[in-house]
Predict the structure.
Amino acid sequence: MGAPLAYFITFTTYGTWLHGRDAGSVDREHNRPGTPFLSANPALERARAEAMRHPPYLLDGPRRDVAVRTIREVADHRGWHLHAVHVRANHVHIVVSATAARPERVMSDLKAWTSRRLRETFAEPPDCDRWTQHGSTRWLNTEASLTAAITYVLDEQGAPMSRYDGRSPQRPNEPDA
């Protein structure tokens, strides 16, 4: 199989989506598209919460806007085509074409630069954990899967928060929220 059309990348903020939670989660053994989430496990969720180094990290409106702007800046700088971004209070969805980079590298770069901009903008401590350790990196190999991912990111997340729609012309670095 050749290079994908795009990647659908999702990552959560630190401490807001712990393994064992009622709404489900994935791990390395349960992460294939179309497979069920892990079952709820209150003891595991409690253990993960107790192991946290600091409170969960949530993205308020100004932080979400910084995240959208930073993701757009990094994509522009790297020559990646950004189709859609939606930054929520506890997770980020991104649909991006980056044929010269693996999805894990794209996600890592976006998380690192967004962390840096959040730290600089809001005088946050450098040792603050903002993101979960990894995330989801799905390959989108067809026009139908690309369109479905964009629709999901922009239209199926509840009330819009800070987002970017690559299909609509906007002023540079302005979220459409």
About this structure: The mean pLDDT is 85. The longest helix spans residues 103-122. The chain is about 35% helix and 15% strand.
